[in-house]
Amino acid sequence: MLNKTMNKAASDDAKRVARIALEKRSVTLAQLHTNSNGLSTEEAANIREKTGTNEIASSNQASKLHFLVEAFLTPFTLVLLILATMSLFTNYIFVPQREKDLSTVIIMVVMVLVSGITSFIQNVRTSNAVRSLLKMVSVTTNVRRDGKDQEIPTKDVVVGDIINVSAGDMVPADMKLLSSTDLFCSSSSLNGESTPTEKNANFVPTPDKMENYLDYPNILFKGTTIVSGSGRGVVFATGEHTVFGKIAAQIADTEMKETTFDTGIKNISKLLLTMTAIITPLVLVVNGLTKGNWTDALIFAIATAVGLTPEMLPVIVTTNLVRGSLEMSKHQTIVKKMNSIQNFGSADILCTDKTGTLTQGQVILEKHYNLEMRETDRVLKMAYLNSYYQTGMKDLIDQAVIDVADDDLDTSEIQRDYHKIDEIPFDFQRRRMSVVVANSDQKHGEHLLVTKGAAEEMLAVSSQVEIGGQILPLTEERKKQIFKDIDDLNSDGMRVIVLAYKVDPSPVGKFTVDDESDLIVIGFLTFLDPPKESAKNALASLNRDGITVKILTGDNEAVTRAVALKVGLNIDTVYGQKDLIGKSDEELAKIVEECDIFVKLSPEWKTKIIDVLQKNGHTVGYMGDGINDAPAMKQADVSISVDSAVDVAKESADIILLQKDLSVLEHAVRIGRKTLTNTMKYIKITLSSNFGNILSIMVASVFLPFLPMLPLQLLILDLLYGTSCLALPFDSVSEDYLHVPREWATKNMPKFMFYFGPTSSIFDVITFAVLFFVICPALTGGSYASLGPAGQLAFMTIFHTGWFVESLWTQEMVIHALRDERLPLIQQRASSAVMLATFGAAIFGTLLPFSKLAGAMKFVHLNEEFLWIVAGLLVCYLLLTTVVKHFYMKKEKFLI
Hints:
Belongs to the cation transport ATPase (P-type) (TC 3.A.3) family. Type IIIB subfamily. The chain has 896 residues and is α/β, with parallel strands linked by helices. Helices cover 51% and strands 15% of the residues.
């Protein structure tokens, strides 16, 4: 399917790749104007200037022009522009010269500019902040430049570059191999196949393989992963010019996991659309029928629809996320994917391997025993041959073997006596790896296969043992003794690797996993990786914060139990992969809840366990740093890696730690929860406040003989409130919200709205009554019905001004009332930024009727008595809201 798509989308590129795969290496180098020694820095810069950077554009990358268009194409600004256009015709173009008035149009245009420019500036700042953070964890590529190998950012790779790749690397661009050593590549990111394929610079595709581009043995494609071995190649395509560049981008977009945050935003959008679809026509019909002016009713209905829309949501969400990201960066945590912060705050389970996370990650080779439990140079020599000559991921175990051998043996002599013939890479099904060497010393020409791996898997393919210099059968009794010795070592916290060999296993060039049979077990390698001193306290802190840590490891049960016991984890129940195979979905769902330690897992089973936990309703984080962790990281709700991880792990990660320590995560989780809480504050408070306003408008529209507020005034009210909400990302958060995982849930949003929206409407209705029956008649000299046209106009203007001021204060105070379940301004207070923004906006709005803009906005001066009435209503409103919160909290765990 992928190849058909590629043939349609990039047939010319496909033909070019086929030609390059078949031609001689010297011809390819000549046509790319390069040589085996690579390009100079100057040549690379010139090429990059012509072809661009080695990046695939995605929907997440946007220009300033895009931000500018996005900032001004919002429901709020579009409605303002529509109203400004209508006002231009009704107040300027189609009126006599002496009645022409542009003040309303000017005010609306200024509002558009204020709203749009604010959004634009914030989006640009967000984009810049993200780029700055990602620079701290950029993926690099080993390139030969200026005659020497050096690490450069992958985006700086150009056509003609000579690239070195090794196990753990992501291939940075489409390239033709010039040389290779036991190179195996996984193309799962492109074709979904998990089995690695061997690549060889000396082979060319055969006619029957020409249709399957991924099977070209001498071509590596951008985005694939080197599983083992090494190679050197020349780049012939970068960025979007790679054969699979555009397809990879499409796959990334369609397969990008949808976070609970994304789902929540979609649910809120559906709720808003439903409310708008119901309420807007009602407002239109009610006002059209009761007032008789359908044009005014339509304009007012449109303004009401805008009032339902939290137009500052994108700005506030991005401000929250950027602020959270910057705060996390101060605690050695870099956020790659902004929306993942919300999931980070929601996570209640963290799955992780133990090596380097719970342990120090400084593996030491303690002993190199023969089967008589004595240390011998022969065992160490065999181990050195395996670790030194293997070209897969040289992990901590291999390095520990090499370090000890360098101290205890003449390794230069070993290297002189043996040269490598082939290797059989490690995989998580066999759980072992082998190298084949040729002895060029006394036994010239003898081939020796040396294998190391997990005990059960090694003994399963062994038939003999070497004891006291003799080769003896591997009887059941001897096998039991070997397992007993291993168990004793494991109980002391030692990780044990079994070592075996085989002489003259197969003709040269034909070594396969089938040759790992009838092996001769020679001894054990025991390793110690002590727990981190900080691990126990970090796990206790995460547990206090409501996060359960589950260990998913490929190590065996005994070692994992020993480490887990030292760091304070529950070791009563431990399951291995064998225990899980064949279990029903119901049984697995129960097992993953009761057990915190899973051992001897393949990457597929790590992914399976995370999937089952998610189906059980958990938000799951996964922390990994190796090739084998990539599938689990993609499955998790939030994936975490470290800056020292392999490329594929860093590419899969949502969050990257600059220090591999669980204590770093503790700070990051709390920041994630604070970010989530402040985002929910805006959404919940604004929706309930807007819902209350709409209820008030509906009541007023039914009973008042005129519009309760002019469309322009309604939009000014919306703009002042929305602008003040820009301070919410800088608000403080109660400790109660930081100690437990916060689910990004919108299912109780309607309930929140129906509790607190009508609460504010009660005081709006009281304000209507006071204005209509007391204040307006007192200032105009009679009831509305008794007045002439001029008097009624004055009556309406006073009413509009009064409700504008009261509604603005109510909306600003609702932020303080609903940000915390305690009594506002006394038992709980917002941050200084929020206090300044909310009270500042309310005071500014109160002063508008006394300013020079009052006439243009159709406001009039209010008397002092009304302002005191508003103050009294606010006190009553805050008290009533506190009572309603009390009843709401009887059935809810959190207010926000």
